[in-house]
Amino acid sequence: MGTLNKVEHSIQTAYLKAIQMSEHFVYIENQFFITSTVVGDVEIENRIGDALVHRIIRAHREGTKWRACILIPLLPGFTFPVDHESASAIRIILECQNRTINRGPNSIFSKLRKEGIDPDDYITFFSLRGWGKLPGEVLTTEQLMIVDDRLAIIGSANINERSQRGDRDSELAAVIRDTDLIDGTMGGKPFKVGRFAHTLRVRLMREHLGIDVDSLYEEDIEQQPDSVEPPANPGNTQRWDPDNEQEDISPEHPKLEKEDFKPIKGETSAVSRMVQLAAGNIQQVFSGVDAAVAYGQSEAAHDIGIAPGREHGITGDEGLNKERQTYGRDGQLEPGFASSKVPTLEEKTVAEKRPHETSGDKPLAEAIEKGVAGPNPLSGKTQDGELYAAPADAMPGDTEPPHARTPSKEDADDQEKSAVRARMLLRQHLTVPYGTKNWTIPTPAPIIDPHGFDDPISDHFFKDVWIAAAVHNTEIYRQVFHAVPDDLITTWKQYKEFVAHHERLQKPVHDPNTDKDKAATADKNADDKSDRPAVGRVPSEGGNSEIGVVVTDTDAKNAAQDQLGKDPDANVRENRTPDVSSHSKAPSVTSGRYEEGSTSAVPGSPTQGHQRFETQQSQQSQQTKKKPTGPDEPFEPWEREYMEELLNDVKGHLVLFPTRFLEGEDIADNFLFNADRLLPLPIYN
Hints:
Elements: H1 10-21, E1 25-29, E2 37-39, E3 42-44, H2 48-62, E4 67-71, H3 88-101, H4 108-114, E5 123-128, E6 143-147, E7 151-155, H5 161-164, E8 173-177, E9 181-186, E10 189-194, H6 195-208, H7 213-223, H8 242-245, H9 254-258, H10 270-303, H11 318-323, E11 325-327, E12 333-335, H12 338-341, H13 345-351, H14 364-369, H15 414-430, H16 459-481, H17 492-505, H18 516-524, H19 553-564, H20 568-574, H21 614-618, H22 622-625, H23 637-647, E13 654-656, H24 663-667
Parallel strand pairs: 1-4, 4-5
Antiparallel strand pairs: 1-6, 2-3, 5-13, 6-7, 7-8, 9-10, 11-12
Helix pairs in contact: 1-2, 13-15, 19-20
C-alpha cells in the first residue's frame, strides 16, 4: 500500500514480472501505450516497454518462439480531428506513442533493430474500427494483459505514466493466476494453458474477427478437455509478491536483463516524487516556450534564406534532432526513423502474397505476377504530385528502400526491398475507380476457422488469419472511407485530401431521376436539405461527431482556452497550423520511373486510371460500365451499393495500427503545433 514514504506501484511491477516470466505469448489491450522512451527532454519512466524489448532479445538469442500482440486505439478519444488547433491532446499523445513504438532511438523498433531483430517477428500493433450509416456505439478496449494463456491482469490501469508510476492517478488491477490447467498448443507444441485465461483470450480474438462468440460458447464448454492437476509446485498456489521478486530477473541472462533496466524502488518518498513532478512540469513549460520561439526563428531564417544546409529539426535544438535518429544494423546512430525502414505489416503481407488460403480471390500481387490483373493504374499522389505512402527519407519516386541521409549506411535487406514494390501496388490501388473487377482489394479475406484460435503464435494463424484479416479490413476502410489515420498518409497534404473524401461521403447519394440543372441549383443553395441519406460516416476521424455530438467554433475556443489558459483567438493566431504550402519542409516525393502519363489528379477521381480500364470494363456487367462520379460530386447509387458490398466483407473490427501516419511531417518537425509545446507533457503521458 502506498504511504507518504512509499510509492505503491505494484500494477507496474506485476506487468514487468509477467512479461519477464512469459514463455511464448503476451496479449495486451489498452487505451494507451506510452512507456520506456524520451519525448523532448522528458523521460517516460515506466519500464513496460523495456521489459518487452528485453524479453524479445532473449527469445531471439535463445531461438524460442515468442510474440506480443498489442491492441490500442487508432486515435485518442478526444473531440477534435488531428489537424484542429485545439487538438493538442491528440497530437501530444500520438507523439508519445510514436516515440514509444517506432520513432526515435528510444523506440521499441529502434532498440530491436539495433540488435539485428525485425520487430514484426516478435511484436505487432493493431486497432479496432467500426462503421455505420447512423451514429452508434463507440468501440473501446479493456485494460488487460494475458500471458501464455495462463495469467491475466485486468483492471483500470493504462500503459502510461499516469497509471503506472503510482504517484499520480489511482488505479486498481487484479492478477489472476489460473491453476485450472487444460491441454493447449503454443508454437505447434503441446502446452498447458489456464481454462479462464485461454477462454478469455480466444473469445476476445474471435470477437475482433467478427465471429459470433455467444453461439460458440456452449460448444466450447462441451469440447474443452478435463482439467489437468497442477504440478506439485507450491509456486502455483503461494502468495505472489512481485515487489520482493522483482530484483531476481532472468538469471539465464543477468547482464542482458539488468543492463539499462531500472525497476522503480518501492521506498521512494511519494511526497518527494510529487515535488519533483511539479518542478518538472514548470521546467517543461519554459522549455516549451524556448522550443516554440526557436522554431519560429528557424522558420523565419529559412524563409529569408539564411539557414542553409539545415532541412530538418529546430536550429540549435539538439534534443529534437536526437529524436529523429535511429539505430542501423551496425548498432550506430544515424538520421531517420526505424518506421521508415521497417516495412509495414501491410507491405509485408502484400509482398508475401498472403493469405495463402482464401475463399475466393487470390492476393492482388499474385494476380499481377500471373498477368491476369489487367493494365496497371497510375500511382496515387496528391494534386501537387506527392506520392502517397512514401516514407520519410524516401528516395526520389520511392523506387528504392528509404536511405538515411547518409546513403553509405544503406543496409536494407530483401524484405525491405520487396516493400518498395508493395507500396507501389498500394498507391496504384488507391486510384482504381469503384467497380473495377480485376484490381480488387489487394489482400483478400482469409478463411477464418472459429476453432482455429488455440495456437496464437503459429504462422498459419497469426500471419495467414489474424494479420491478413487486419490488412484486409484496413484496405476496405481505405477504399470506401479514406479513413484516417492510415499508413499511406505521411504528410499533411495527403491528410487534407483524404479528409476531402470524407466531405464527399456526407453528400446525399445522387438521384438519377432528378434533373441535372435542378440538382446543380440545389447544390448551390446552402439552405436546401435533401431527404436522401449520406453514404456513411467516416470512422475515427471527426471526434464525437461520430456519436451525434456536434463540435462548434465556440466549443473549439472554449477547449483552447481550457488547455492554454489564454485568449482563444490569440491562441489560434499564434498557433502553428499544418504547413501544406509549397514551402513545407516535409519530404516531397514526386513521381518516379513506374509512373506513366503526366496527369495529376486527386486519388479516386475518374481522370486517374479510368481510361486505362475502359476496354476492360466494356467486358464487364452493365453496372460497372457506368462512369464513376467526379471527386466533388455525390456518389451514384451503384457506387454506394459497391461500397456496401465491400463493407459487408469486413471481418470483424480488427485493423492495423499505422506506424507511418504523418511520418514525413514528423521527420521535418512539422507534426506538433507551437502551442502543443507549451503544454506540460505529464498532463497527457
